[in-house]
């Protein structure tokens, strides 16, 4: 079974088309990434376990179900993953946020680590990594390695667009994680960019370059 779930909801597909268009400006790009993250978080949390607690309505006592948001950590891969954090927090407001700083060496395309800061109890949490692009898969593999080294067992990744070679690479090393995506493209160009993709997610989010 594949580690990837492609989300085909019409609103997600519609919003991804807006993101892919080169005519979408940074301000709109940021807003749409947040909207997509909200909709994706709904799907990513679909199988979260529920527990029953006792409450009192204005009419009577009852047992009712809750998801404990305290068991989740959102971990954006800097920089571009930051764009999805606020959207996930809208759905899971009690989640803690850790950060992994990685950038791709433009020549070797391998990830370089420059920051790692996690909540103290990270090993007890379900981690949702936010990483808009899975190109070679190197960044996701490196982030998952770092988290597993800290004892994290349950890892889900939210992407906007993945490429087949990247997914194959991640699957070979980490077959136990789940990746959710809206777009699933076939290939990379000679500079390691997803084709057709949406360009450089970090630059488009933050208006750099
Ligand atoms: C980009 C993107 C991913 C990574 C994906 O990061 O945001 O983190 O490349 O590529 P991979 O699957 O081949 O590892 P970039 O180096 O551009 O850093 P940025 O997020 O700071 O812009
Ligand atoms: N990083 C991006 O932002 N876009 C790509 O297509 C590949 C890596």
UniProtKB/TrEMBL annotation:
The gene is upp. Belongs to the UPRTase family. Binds 1 Mg(2+) ion per subunit. The magnesium is bound as Mg-PRPP. Its EC number is 2.4.2.9. The keyword Cytoplasm does not apply. This is Uracil phosphoribosyltransferase. It comes from the Bacteria. One of its GO terms (cellular component) is cytoplasm. Keywords: Allosteric enzyme, Glycosyltransferase, GTP-binding, Magnesium, Nucleotide-binding, Transferase. 5-phospho-alpha-D-ribose 1-diphosphate binds at residues 79, 104, 131-139, 200. Residues 7-208 form the Phosphoribosyltransferase domain. Catalyzes the conversion of uracil and 5-phospho-alpha-D-ribose 1-diphosphate (PRPP) to UMP and diphosphate. One of its GO terms (molecular function) is GTP binding. Gene3D superfamilies: 3.40.50.2020. Uracil binds at residues 194, 199-201. Pathway: Pyrimidine metabolism; UMP biosynthesis via salvage pathway; UMP from uracil: step 1/1. Its cofactor is Mg(2+). GO terms for biological process: UMP salvage; uracil salvage. It comes from Bianquea renquensis. Transmembrane segments: none annotated. Allosterically activated by GTP.
């Amino acid at each position: 079974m594949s580690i990837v779930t492609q989300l085909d909801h019409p609103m997600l597909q519609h919003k991804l088309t807006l993101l892919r268009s080169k005519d979408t400006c940074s301000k709109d790009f940021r807003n749409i990434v947040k909207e997509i993250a909200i909709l994706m978080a709904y799907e990513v949390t679909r199988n979260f376990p529920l527990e029953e607690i006792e409450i009192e309505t204005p009419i009577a006592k009852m047992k009712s179900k809750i998801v404990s948001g305290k068991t989740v950590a959102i971990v954006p891969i800097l920089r571009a993953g930051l764009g999805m954090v606020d959207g996930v927090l809208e759905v899971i407001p009690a989640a803690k946020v850790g950060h992994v700083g990685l950038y791709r060496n433009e020549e070797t395309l391998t990830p370089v680590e420059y920051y790692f800061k996690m909540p103290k109890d990270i090993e007890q949490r379900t981690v949702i990594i936010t990483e808009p692009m899975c190109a070679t898969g190197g960044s996701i593999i490196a982030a998952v390695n770092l988290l597993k080294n800290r004892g994290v067992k349950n890892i889900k990744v939210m992407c906007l667009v993945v490429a087949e070679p990247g997914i194959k690479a991640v699957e070979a090393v980490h077959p136990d994680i789940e990746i959710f995506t809206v777009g699933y493209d076939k290939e990379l160009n000679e500079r390691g960019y997803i084709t057709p993709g949406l360009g450089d997610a970090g630059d488009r989010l933050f208006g750099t370059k």
